[in-house]
Amino acid sequence: MKKNVIQSEKQSLSPMPIRADMAVIWDSVVSDIKNTLHSTGYAHTIFTTTQRSSLFSQDILFQLNLNDKKSLLTLKRATKDAVVMSVPGPVNILKSVLEHNIDYIDEPYKVFDYGVSFVDEDNDLTTPPKQLHVFKAECIGDAMPVRDAELILTTYRMLGQLGMKNLIVSINELGGKESRKKYYDDLALKAQPRYAKLCQSLEYNPIRLYHELSHQESDMNLRLPHIVDYLSQDESQHFKSVLEFLETLDIPYDLDSGLAGSLGFNEGVYFEIKSQDYPEHVLVRGGRHNELFALLGGESDSGSVGVEIYVDEIVSIVHELKLKIVSEAKLPDVFVASIGPEGQKSALKILSLIQNHGLGVKESFGLKSLKQQLLKAKKSDAEITLIVGRKEAVDGTVILRDKESENQEVIPIEKLLSIISQKLNKP
Length: 427
What we know:
This protein is of the alpha+beta class.
């Protein structure tokens, strides 16, 4: 009888072994990441690790940054559909939400999973991906740019709390399928005929093509166009809004036109977070999955955005720096409600303040109605609810509502932490 065979160049890879001297650090890092995600409203769920091979159409492969199925780890069976093992990107999360009819329309659904995954760490087509321990977090049902910024803020602050220094966010806008097609056509036209073979091999990833071409000849780089010049008006505005949020939060970022997506990321805003002291380690990757979610059966305008957090990379730095990790579960002490774009910007700054102070905080960016947000605040059991709209954003204030007394008071943001600490009896 013919044995099942795993058809992939990745089959020789294995996760990094956890040495005895790193076990305590590893457990603490994993626990801290879980607590951070929990405290910002992400629920922990365990998803299947496999999907049928027939699911992976050429369009879905494109959204996963793959040219064909050869790069998938596939278990072939004689009489049945082949099974893809360790599915890349958020496919398993998105499929599970759709198959179980989980509501993401009325309110965005925030969820995460933790396991072993293949990671295209260097975006190099000639080398196989690594197999790493990865947290995958996804916010489904929210197409607003504030959600991209919220995920960047959450993971950026999380890394800082773990002891990472000199963090920077590299960011680019990869555009949608139509934008990338126009961009590719112009790149290929400029590179022909000398680099025709390279252009053909990277038709599915024009930004990767830009990266490769810019390193072929130094004098050619000046004449190569950038993806931002080919974005639609909506894509351009979304990207601009995300950058404005980062500036509001004082999060340092590097606008990198050559930053291509990675395995599982190939559309819209894409970012990577590194420590400039350890530039070889990508600690977090994140980006949009709007088109992928729609292809899998989700509502076309719902939106989805996610991150991957690389435990192996974080632990290696924590271990080298001999950092002490103290992990403590953070329940939602504070709930932040916001009204309008000005209120969202101010709310993000407040989230950052509260997270840095070590308190659990939840938000409701996906709900436009203040009434809905306050109902969610009540269900969250948060001791304090903060409300900020345009007037509060302009005045530099916030409305604080106490759970027990239900009294409201307007306070200056600079006094917010001390007042919250007094009310919660926390230092």
